[in-house]
Amino acid sequence: TVVITEMALIMSLVVGFSVFPHSNVFLLFLLAFLYGISLFGFSILIVALIPSQRSSATAATLLHLVTYFMVFLVKDPLISRTTKTLVSLLPNIAMTFSIYDLFYFEY
User: Fold this and answer.
1) Contact, 4 vs 36, CB < 8 A?
2) Which residues of the chain have pLDDT under 50?
3) 47 exposure class (CB count in 10 Å sphere: 0-12, 13-18, 19+)
4) pTM (two decimals)
């Protein structure tokens, strides 16, 4: 948790002053921190489901990439808000939608 906190702090300070100058730095920190915690929970879930160390690392990497690219499937405006909300339970999709909304309100 210390590493997640440090990374979120560094990321929020750098991004807060350069990319999102009108956004609250604390909220950027909170977004990055919660994303890190959700990724940690996602990895714990994968390790609990797959007992082998090598298999769980491979599965976690593949699932991380697959859920990242799922954003392009649900980004369509014709997809219902309910479907987008349910899919946002996955960390990568939730973070991507958060960044989209942040860009929308920032610019």
Assistant:
1) yes
2) none
3) middle
4) 0.86
